[in-house]
Amino acid sequence: MAPSRSTRPVRSNRTQVQSYHEESSSQDEELATSRREPLSLRSRTTRMPRSYREESTDGFDEPGEPDDQELDMLVSPATEPLAPGPISNPRPSRPQRTAPKPRPAKKKGKRNRGPVGKPLNKRPKTGTADAIFLGSGVIPPWQTLPYHILFDIFLRASHPLLDEGRSTRNDSVKWLVNMALLCRSFHEPALAALYYSPPLLPAHKSHALLNLLSQPQESLSMNYSSKIKELHVEVEPVLQYKSGPTLGYFDLSSLLEKTPQLHVLRLYHKDDFTMGMPPWHIGPSKWTYTESMFAVLHRGILLRSFEWNSRFLGTGELLHFMGTQHMKPAFRGLRELKLLHIDDFDMEETPSPKTAALIRAVNLLPEIERLEFVESSLINGETLTKLPSTLRSLTLNNCDRMWSEDITTFLSSHGVNLRELSLSHNRHLSLSFVQNLAQSCPNLELFKMDLSMHDVSSYHDVEPHFQELFAQSEVPTWPETLQEIELTQLRKWNDATAEIFFTSLVNAAPKLRSLRRLAISAILKIGWRDRATFRERWIGQLEKTFLRRSPPPDPNLRSLRKRPLQPSLASMNGTIESEETSDSRPGTAESGPSSKRQSVRLAQKTTEVEDDSDDSMPESQGMCDIVSIRIDNQRPTEMQYNENDFLDDELSGDEDWAGDDFEPAAGHAW
């Protein structure tokens, strides 16, 4: 009887047909298992095919998706046994290879990729770590300090609250808020330091401040209106534009009504920080000084400091308006005045009506002490000589019509009361007036001069317009009351003139007992060998003469731990006996090393005294905390760089191979 065949048609008698019917019972499963051949003897069609699927690069499996092992099971063919039947001329089987067991996909975390060009590894810093400061364990009772002391601490530690150059807040604002919430005793002093000069940026903060001041101050934790002393307002974002669709324009007059203790009002523009801009490039602002603002000021506010800027009103109109306002009560007690961009393009008329208006407006201030002119071509020798004689501080910044003869004339008539003199970026101003500085300004405490020039126009003229810094016959003299000397980018002189200048400082050192800071930057265009010799000689001599030689305070000093107030009697007796024994001990052989050390110290002191007596150097000052001297031939720039500015901790790219190769991130490129 012929064996049973499958019901499906076959192509030839050599073809073995695999059944895809599910097995219905456990007996059939056992029968099929017993009929299976060993793995090495199975045919190619009955073996599990090798999977070439790539491993998943995702760090996690999506929900609802089968894993790799389940997918392999779904695509693999069934391994059921063939139905029994006659086999004629079987095809020889090829050598088989064992199929690898599918491995579960590795879960790789998402790799953090840095910016392009970032080095793979950083060179570990070799610098020593900062030593951990170990306190004494004694916490001072800060909360018991008086209000005014806590207020000074918070004010000095936090200000300035704004970075005006970038129009952003500093982190000290948040720090003051945290201090106010830390302790009840800190609450009012910290908030008083915050509202002393409240930051009005971003612009919506100004509206929030106005809403706070509009509330009844009796219902609040403190009187915020009385805490505001200064207002620094950037005109463009706060006053010129709307703060939002719901807030609208900010009304400065309403804010001034709520600040009766205000004494500093400053309205500035962000472009005021850009030096060297030509006058014809300084465009007028859309916002101008308003009558309503000054009407509120004259109702009871006494200003101590104010700024006039021709960006907000033309120079001619501004000078007339300035004279009118200076006669009113709010400006009668003004002590600090700053004028920006006061220019005059019609200087052919002599005397100029604008110059007369400026002199008249400034002389209407009876208590003026500090005067500052910034990028004002209207300022000249005639203007300076007619300024009030009560000036204690004068600042001239980028005034193109100022010569050394004008400063000499001004100092001879107004220099007696002068305490601070700052001259920066003035093209025609040389150092010739310094020969009479000690005689003209006997009370001068700060002398600052910067010969770096700024010009953002297409000409880019950054050179001074004088022939020489000073003549060799004009020997500088220095007032004895000087506390700080800062001279930047001294140039247009030779080595002989520079030697006269530095010699004058060394000779005046015994009389400059109040000098605490000496900073000089000089450009000397001579041979590099001569310049190196000159630098080595004078930098060392100036540091030896002015730099403080006493060792700095020990940073490890701290308050001592608590000790018992009444030590035990036994310990006291033991201490007294040991002291008596050590004092009454005769000189024996044990005291030999001590005597030798004393003799060595005496010999060293004697040698130092002999060296000092042999040296012909004048008496040293030795009281300056900072002595910074720089002598080179570099071209003048706003920022001087050195080698440390170009070094970093990155790898150079030529280190020995450490066995770690770069592995690109797993995944597809698209």
Query: Strand sequence of the main sheet, in spatial order?
Result: 3-4-5-6-7-8-9-10-11-12-13
Low-pLDDT residue spans? 1-6, 19-27, 29-36, 56-88, 575-593, 609-615
Largest sheet: 11 strands, parallel
Helix tally? 18
C-alpha termini separation: 65 Å
- Average pLDDT figure: 77
Biased composition (Pro residues): 83-93
Biased composition (Polar residues): 1-19, 634-643
Region (Disordered): 1-127, 546-670
Biased composition (Basic residues): 103-113
List keywords for this structure.
670 residues, alpha/beta, Leucine-rich repeat, LRR (right-handed beta-alpha superhelix), eleven-stranded parallel beta sheet, two-stranded antiparallel ribbon, 18 helices, 10% strand, disordered N terminus
